[in-house]
Amino acid sequence: MQLSVSQQWTAPRLNRLFLDFKRLGLSTIIIQRSVVGTKAFYASHAFESMQEPPLEAILQYADEFGLTVRVGLAEDPEFWDRIKLASPPDEVETYLRSLRERSLNAARELVPVVSRHRSFGGWFVTEEVDDVNWLQAERRVLLHEHLRDLAETLRSELWASVAISGFSNAHCAPSTLEAFWRDIVDGTGIDLVLFQDGIGAHKLEVASAGQYLAAMKRAAIGSGRALSVVVELFDQVAGPPVSNAPFRAVATGIDRLTQQLSLARDASTVGIIAFSVPDYMVPGAGPSALQLFTDYTTLTSGVIKGNDPKPGAITAVRP
Q: What's the chain look like in SS3?
């Protein structure tokens, strides 16, 4: 769930959404961020709380519906500009330190909140890892330090698993990606990697994505960590790299999603994630999302009854 300050998550809307989650057979929710910029989606003293913050209401609904929730920390909208290759390493190091402090401030405020809910299932680090900005050895050291210190401190505040997300721009060979990610998880103690398939954003194509996902699986297994592939439910129709216009996307069709699920099932070790069900796969998100919801629930009707998933079943909803 990619919460934003422009959204209102009323009780009726959340109730409908969780009923949709139940019909889809989901088991886990990942809240992408609990803070974006200066705005918090919970009652906060360190940040500015939005009116009627929804995070604890989501946890309460998850308690009632028997879902697990992984809670994201603080996200900075300027992240990609601040860590670009042109930025000097010392500036990146200082910036990552500030991000760490923001996320830890959020986590310390959230510990008493999430501790009240049996649905809480761990933390999610908002900084996504790509294969352009961190391949250089000097920068990789900075990334390791950031993730290691953040994970260790989070566990000292509340012992829970820590997940990060990443994707490939096909900037390197699959073998290089494998070595890069194995190095990351070996050196940071991260428990779970959520790796985006990149197909909806046109970073990878269906024909080539399997090689990169297989490399990620080898890296995760080799390091004794868990991997969940994130299937992108959307088809980007505007915005970089498609065009210079603002980002715009529509829900994908079931035929392409079926292909993605097959790839994700082969690579994931702990289930398949979806980005993002509330935006692209529930009836209230528009006609194409309704169509995908209908087609998917028909496809997986046996899964929801407890049978073997064919060709793959989404277990979680994420950013």
A: CCCCCCCCCCHHHHHHHHHHHHHHCCCEEEECCCEECCEECCCCCCCEECCCCCHHHHHHHHHHHCCEEEEECEECCCHHHHCCCCCCHHHHHHHHHHHHHHHHHHHHHHHHHHCCCCCEEEEECCCCECCCCCCCHHHHHHHHHHHHHHHHHHHHHCCCCEEEEECCCCCCCHHHHHHHHHHHHHHHCCCEEEEECCCCCCCCCHHHHHHHHHHHHHHHHHHCCEEEEEEECEEEEECCCCCCCCCEEEECCHHHHHHHHHHHHHHCCCCEEEECHHHHCCHHHCHHHHHHHHHHHHHCHHHHCCCCCCCCCEEEEEC
User: Which is nearest to 124 in space by CA: 74, 171, 158?
Assistant: 74
Positive or negative torsion for Cα 275, 36, 171, 213 = negative
- Could you read off the pLDDT of 245-263 as tens digits, one per residue? 999 999 999 999 999 999 9
* Residue that wins the pLDDT comparison between 312 and 106: 106
pLDDT at 241: 79
Buried b (16+ CB within 10 A) or exposed e, 278-295: bbbbbeebeebbeebbeb
* C-alpha radius of gyration, the chain, whole number: 19
In angstroms, the CA 306 to CA 18 distance is 19
Residue 246, token pair as written in the block: 């603002």
Q: Can you give the pLDDT at residue 316?
A: 55
Distances (CA, A) of 282 to 1, 43, 197, 238: 12, 28, 21, 22
- Comparison of pLDDT for 159 and 15, the residue scoring more: 15
